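Worked example

This section walks through a single chain of length 166. The input is the sequence exactly as stored; nothing has been trimmed or padded.
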Amino acid sequence: MSDMVWMPVRFAVLALVVAAVAGLSDWPRHRSVAEGTGVVTLSFSHGADRRAACRPATEEELAKMPPNMRRTEICPRARPPIAVEFEIDGRQVFAADIPPSGIASDGPSRVHRNFELPAGTYELVVRMRDRPGDAFDWQGRKTVELKPADHRVIDFRVDGGGFVFH
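Given that input, the structure is written out below as C-alpha cells.
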C-alpha cells in the first residue's frame, strides 16, 4: 500500500494518543491541602548572638595563653539555641528551643513548620529569643485573612526589622 493510504490511519492513531494524554493530564485530581483550607508556614534561619555567652577571662586563663593570644573575654564557638513561640488566635501552636546547626554548633538555627488552617481571619503572633534570658528579643504580630488554597509565609530578617509576613 502507498503512504497516502496509511496517512489517515497514522493521523487517527496520533490523535488518539494526544487525546489520551490530554485526558490523563488532569486525572487523578490532586490537592496539596484539603478543600477550603490554606497554609501558614513559619520558616526562617537565624543565628543566635554568640557574644551573649562571653565571659571575662580569669588571671589563670590569661597566664596560660601566649602573650599575642590574650584577650579579656572568652567566647565559646558554639551559638546558643533560639527559643521560638507561635500563636494563632491566642492559642500556642508551636514552642521550641531550636539548636544551632553545624558540626561545632556554630551555624544558624533553622525553623520550618506548616500549619494547615480552615479559610478565615487569624491573629498570628510569633516571638523569638536569641540571647540567654527570659524576655523575647523579637516579636511579630499580624492579622491575616487566609483564603482557600492560600499559602502565607512568616520569615525573619534582622535587616527587615524582625518578622516579615508574606
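What to look for: The longest helix spans residues 3-24.
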